[in-house]
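Bumping with the actual sequence this time:
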Amino acid sequence: MATVFFSYSHRDETLRDELEVHLTMLKRQGFIETWHDRRITAGEEFDEAISINLEEADIILLLVSSDFLASNYCYDIEMQRAMEKHEKGESYIIPVILRPCDWASAPFGKLLVMPTDGKPITKFPNQDDAFLEVVNAIKRTITRLQLRQNSTPPSKNYGSAVKPQILDIPRSSNLRIRKTFLDRDRDQFVEESFEYISNFFENSLAELSNRNPQEVDTHFKRIDANHFSVIVYIGRKKAAECRIWTGGSSRLITNGIAYSSNASGSDNSINESMSIVDDGYALFLRPLGMASFSSQQNVKKLLSQQGAAEYLWDILLRPLQ
């Protein structure tokens, strides 16, 4: 049985609790036991209890947030010792990005972080999807532990639906198979893309104001579940604005993302739109090319959620640049 140690800030205790709930099946099947400082009982010495359990841990979860990075205990004591154990091969570290923060330059920034690409858990439209990625990463790590200890695959049966991937054997990276995307897949992709773009714009506006505090003021408004608007002021005068929504409410676009350069316009006033397309393997967004600066090359591109957000952000900022 592998011991999983949580290194976290108490400000993130709610997220830690939620992750632990997602680890229930691994506990029930006898693959892991978990420990964090809330398990310290009356009469135990705090630092000593943490040190003992950290030293005995097989897997160390760094639950990363701005509060984790600001905590001297988490960063200077727990994380530094965890890195030493990881580099000696005594433990495995899995950094888990809970909230947006400047983690990439930290010592653990060279490791593979979870969720995929370091997307913070709080930025997922459905946080269960993010926690499941972390659970699967822990399963893979358990497999590596058992292979290292026994030189044989794990004897326990995870079940076909959750069989862990064994990373320590040679295999091809060409594992894609063609898929058929149905209406539910496309509808869900639209919803997730809209949430990603909404978060992207809100965060980008905040950074735009931070970098130009004397000149720029911004306003982000979430109108409803399917609409948001943005206004950029320079010298307290409106300099750029937009309104973005999912296309189901417009007669001009039935399924996709719509953009208007008028923050207070109607759904029937569109300056750009993006449809949902696939390449046989994954879903993407493709701009219609209505924006005046759109090149034919851009129109043909299949954009990821980040690429689509950058494309629409460029439309907003173009008058200012």
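The tokens above came from a reply further down the thread. Residues 223 and 229 are 7 Å apart (CA to CA).
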